[in-house]
Structure formats: C-alpha cells, structure tokens
Amino acid sequence: MTPSKLVFRNITRRRGRFVFTLLGITIGIASFVTFMAMGGNLKREIHRETAALGASLMVLPKGSCGYEQLSILTGDQMPTNITVDEVKKIRDIKGLTAVPYLSQQTAINNRPVSVTGIEPQATFAFKRWQMAQGSYFSSEESKDAVIGVVAAKQFDLKPGSTITVRGEKLTVQGILAETGGRDDAGIFLALPLAQRLFKAHEQVSYVAVRVDNLAQTEAYIEKIREAVSLGVVSDKQMLKSVMGIVGSVNITLQLIAAVAVLASAFGIVNTMMAATYERKREIGILQALGARRRMIFALFMMESGIYGVIGGVSGVVAGLLAAAVATPYITQNAFTTMVKGSGSGTLIDLKVIIYSILFSTVVAILAGIYPAWRAARLTPVEAISYE
Amino acid sequence: MNNIIRTEHAAKTYTIGEITTTALKDVSLEIPQGSFTCIVGPSGHGKSTLMHLIGGLDRPSDGKVYIGDMEISRIANSDLARLRAKRVGFVFQFFNLLQGLTAIENVEIAMMLAGVPDREQRVRAEELLALVGLTEKAGSKPSQLSGGQQQRVAIARALANDPDILLMDEPTGNLDSVAEAEVLDLLQTLHRQGKTVVIVTHSDEVAKRAERIIRVKDGLVDQ
Ligand SMILES: Nc1ncnc2c1ncn2[C@@H]1O[C@H](COP(=O)(O)OP(=O)(O)O)[C@@H](O)[C@H]1O
Ligand SMILES: [Mg+2]
Predict the structure, then answer these.
(1) What pLDDT digit, counting tens, does each position of A180-220 carry?
(2) Do B58 and A281 touch (CB under 8 A)?
(3) B94 CA distance to ligand 2 centroid (A)?
C-alpha cells in the first residue's frame, strides 16, 4: 500500500460523485480550451487574410469602424456606399493600383456563402490567382461564375455546374487554385452582373489599394482622402483594429470559460468536504495507526489534485474535439467564417494544452486546501468519537 | 516486574463551548510489561478516555503518562504519531477498517504509515492474516466480512508493526459469544507471546481471562 494507491481507492469509492465532479472540471476546461483554440485560429486566419488581400490600403465608406474592416476579411455582406465614380477618382492618382469589390452573401443549399463582385482582369492580377479547373472569366461583362476550391468541394460543383444566385441560374466557368485563404470558400462574379443581381447599380463595397512605393503609404492615405470623401486605412491599422475586436471577444469568451472552471472548483470543494465528513472516522483510524497531520493533509490534497489532473486532460481532449468537430457547423458569422474557412483545420499550441492542464490542476489544488486543512485539523479523539 | 505503562495523577477534561466535562479526575496506575489487563467500569465513566491517554491518542489535561521511560504527555505531535505507529496497536469497538480497502490492504496500511516499503508489506500482511485465520478473506472488503472477522483483521493490523502494547476498546462488544471466544483465544495467544494486552470491556467473559483488572468509576480508579 502506498499513499497514492490509498487516494485512488478513496476517490473511486463513490463512483457517481467522482464522475460528476470530474465532469464539472472537464466541461470547464473544455470550454476554456475550445475558446482558446478558436481564438488562436481566428488570429492566425486574420493575419493570413490580411496578407492575402495584397493591399496596403483599404478604402471604405466614411465613418467605417473595425467591424466593417472585419467584414472585408470574413466576406460578410457589406453596404455598397462607394460609387464607381469615386473608384475612378482613386485610380486617377498616380503610383497606385486600386481594385473595387462588391461584397455580398447568398445561400446555396441553405448554407451561407459569400459572393464577391470583381473586375475580372484587375482582380486576377492583383490577387495573383491561378486556375485549378475550367477557365477564368472570358470578359469583364461575363455572366458566369468562378468559385473557390473549398466552395467547389462543399457544394459539389464542377466547371459547367449551375448555381442559383438571387434567382438567376449561373454557370460555373472555373475553379480557382487553392489560395489558403477565405477566397477558397467564395463565389466570384463579374462586377456588372453582381451589381445587377444585388441591385447596387454603379456601386461597390470597398476598394483595395496597392501603393507602388510602400514607403509612401502614409502620404497616399492623404492623397486619397483629398480626392474622395471616403475612409482610408492602412493594412496595419486594419490588422490592429480587427485584432482589437477579436481580442476583446476572445477575452470575454475566456472569462466565461474561467467562470465555468471556477464553478467546477466549487464542485471539487463540495465533493472534498463531503469526503472529509464521511471519512471522519477513517481519518481517526489513520491517526491511531500513526498517520501525522501532514499525511492526512497530503492524502486529501492528492485526492483533489487528481480531479484537476484527470479533469484537465479530459477537458483538453473534449475541448479539442469540440473545437474540431463543432467549428465547421457553427453558423456563419463574422467571427466564425474564418475559422471555418481555414483549410488547415484546428491547430492548437502545445502551450495551450500544458497551460490548461496546469490551470486545472492548480484550481483543483486550491479547491482542495480548505477541505484538506479541515481534515488534518481533526484531533484523533474527535475523529474517532463514535457517532 | 517492569511497568510498561504508567500514569501519575492523570486528569482529562473536555471543554465544548461553555460546558466542561471531567472524564478523568486523578488516575495513577501501572501496567506491567507482558500483562493481560482489563479496564472495566460503567459506561461514560472514562474508560475510553483512559485508553486514549495511555496509547498516545490524546493528551492529559493534567498529570503525566509514561510508556516505558518516555513521558508521552510531553512529546511533540509527530513523535506521538510515530509512537502510535510503532509501539501501540489499537483496536476499537467497531468500524475499525477502512471501507475502501480489502482486508489485506487494511493490514498493509499500518505498515505504510510506519514507513515500511510497499514491496515488503504484502508478505508480512499475509502472515498476519494467516495468524488470525483469515487467509481466505485477504481480498474481501470489510462489508463482505462478519463482525468477528472484521475484528480479527483489525487485530492483525494492530500487530503489523510488532508493537509492545495492544490497546482494545471493547473489541468484542459487537460480537456474539462464538466470535468473542475466537477473538479472546487469539488475544491470549498474543499475550503468551509476550505482548502487553489492555482491554476495555463490559464482558465478564473477557474480564475472567484477565490477570489484572482496573476498575474505573467516576473518572477515578481503584486497582
Ligand atoms: N471527545 C469528547 N468530548 C467531550 N466529552 C467527551 C469526549 N469523549 C468523552 N467525553 C465525555 O467524557 C466522559 C467519559 O467518556 P468515555 O471515556 O468515553 O467513557 P466510557 O468509555 O467509560 O464509556 C463522558 O461523560 C463523555 O461524555
Ligand atoms: Mg468507551
């Protein structure tokens, strides 16, 4: 017999209580891990999407804030407040390349999918796209669609398939080669067709701008502002404000998870208190057999610590499963589109795993201190007194 | 003869809130090494309290308690724990065993607490269970044992670290006469092997076998 064997015997004596207490901490840690994993993916995706835009500046309607900027990255529906005339004014400035986009959404088989109206040749060059199957738009006024490789897989589409957007049947002309970004999950139409279908005559959602001389980026922000009455942000500003939004959402989610872990800590306190009451007499027997207070304290601490370790491990496993399994099914919105669109699946740091297990163990140990102290404080005669 | 246990004017009062109970008033006694002693007396008069004091499970409020030459009423808590682990074996009236452990594990735990390494415990525990005639029940949980069998496991456990002194608080109080006789035979064997046996009892059967009888009444003794 060893102290750890004794602890294992004791902890499993009440199967139901053991399982439910463990479930509490497992759920707490699982939610923690899920949110961390999703948050981590989101940040990675934002970096990737920002880079994939290939733009140094973004022109948006005046007064746009971080949420509009986030929508650019997620492919969410956006207002169409920029006129073709304004696009032309931007293009008149020398030393930059400007590409307009009309960002909308539609549904295929009841699943939301982003639809982007583009200028075929300009965008193809700007984004350095390549084709995987079929061919690209034949003209700037094409009535066909080009789709991303993930969208093709998702809806089982091939060149020649038809899709319905806003009640109009369109032929899939080609499938883009994998970009690794959100474009893979999108549908692209030539701008005139998109403007007609979404009733945005002569209008676009935003304009991506690449400045020839990157060192002059700041100066170009001013130049564009002088030319048109629109908002202009650099990719760095955009990254910062979008990360700010994601960060605050992340922190909120992690706080919720922390509350869940805290609640489960009280579950452990409860279980351990019940154990000290139930085993009061056994504590006395151990003392009569020569156990010191230190030993009694250690036995109860180990017991609560085990909840932390096992709960931490099972919580990490459950959390990763939840992040991997649930993420693709979460309804599309600004925050989840990217996680969902991520081709690499759920990635998680070893650090997150280790932190989570440590976190759970520390919480369980803290939760165990008071009950263990109560147990160790009993005098042998108090503990042994028949009652 | 050498006195292994000795008390000098030992007294014990319990204070719970405002109420003070005097369990022992003034007890001076001597118990020789290797003797078979019974402590008898009416319920609530301080027998258990006396047993706790001489086994180092509790400290007197006043007076002194010795085991051999050591004044155990003055030693540190951790030394008292070591004394209980190595020199004294306790058996109580009931619920002696840890319910989550098997019979043999209950014996092993006493060795664990005395610092015997895990791998050395099993063989000795098997010997002890054989001694009390429970080899077959080694893997049984306390709930699967009769009252008499449970007490025999408790005695095997009390012997685990080969203590000089066996202290028993009504060990047969819960048993029928057949089981009681079995336990008493076992205790007599141990006594013959040189153990000092002290039994608190109500039973005439038990008292009949004693060499010496200590009568406790109202927190006092007359030997
Ligand atoms: N832990 C305790 N706290 C308070 N009073 C106690 C405690 N243990 C015993 N007593 C009191 O001390 C007296 C003697 O008790 P005890 O030694 O158990 O008697 P006996 O074993 O002879 O029945 C009783 O009045 C009992 O109520
Ligand atoms: Mg008693």
Answers:
(1) 778 888 999 999 999 999 999 999 999 999 998 888 888 99
(2) no
(3) 11
Q: State whether the beta carbon of B42 lies less than 6 angstroms from ligand 1.
A: no
pTM given for the model: 0.79
Task: Tell me how close the Cα of B111 comes to any Cα of chain A, in angstroms.
Answer: 8
Does residue A238 lie within any of the structural domains?
no
* Position A149 in a domain: yes
Asked whether the predicted pLDDT for residue A337 surpasses 70, the reply is: no
Ligand nearest to the CA of B94: 2
Chain B residue numbers with beta carbons less than 8 Å from the beta carbon of A287 are: 57, 81, 84
Confidence band for A341, pLDDT divided at 50, 70 and 90: very low
C-alpha A78: how far from chain center = 21
| Nearest chain A Cα distance for residue B144, angstroms | 15
- A78/A223 same-domain check: yes
CATH architecture of B32-57+77-222: 3-Layer(aba) Sandwich (3.40)
B132 touches B153 (CB < 8 A): yes
Residue finishing a domain among A169, A200, A229: A229
Task: List the single residue in B95, B99, B118 with the smallest CB-CB distance to A2.
Answer: B118
Which H/E stretch holds residue A45? helix A15-53
3-class secondary-structure state, position B93? coil
User: Has residue A220 been placed in a domain?
Assistant: yes
Tokens of B107: 């014996």
> Do residues A184 and A333 share a domain?
no
Substitution target from B112, B157, B161 for chain A, most A beta carbons within 10 A: B112
Distance B56 CA to ligand 2 centre (A): 16
Q: Do A274 and A223 share a domain, yes or no?
A: no
- Which residues from chain B sit within 8 angstroms of residue A282, using beta carbons? 98-99
Tell me the residue range of the domain where A7 lies.
3-47+243-384
Is residue A283 within 8 A of residue A276, CB to CB? The reply is yes
Residue B157, CA distances (Å) to A285, A316, B5, B27 in order: 11, 43, 21, 29
Q: What is the mean pLDDT of residues A54-83?
A: 81
The tokens for A243 are 């990360």
**How many domains would you assign to chain A?**
2
Same domain, A85 and A210: yes
